[in-house]
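I have a small job for you when you get a moment. Can you supply me with one protein entry, sequence and fold together? It will help me judge whether the discrete encoding reads sensibly. Write everything out right here, beneath this request:
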Amino acid sequence: MPKIKSYEFGKIVVDDQFYNQDLVLSNTKVYSGWWRREGHRVVLDDLIEILEKEEPEVLIVGKGYYGYMEIDETLKAYLREKNIELVSGKTGDVWKEFNKLTEEGRKVVAAFHLTC
């Protein structure tokens, strides 16, 4: 199970592996190099494949160091329809929630924007 060790502007350490690009994590996998079609907005199409594959109970969205990334209504509507809890905020404020929830045995997907 991936465990986040640290985060600072532009970089995150997962299981002693350093990443400097946005990424998505699940209980079992690191999806590195996560790319969004609209840059500072995350839409359903940006995560649908991973959400359908992983079937999480919780989606954590780290909206960047300053929290500038927005979550589109299409994604929020999908999460409501599938009864997936959404936890979002500045990446520095929410990354520890991934470790906490996975240690509790919850199925989690976390999408982290690492810069602004």
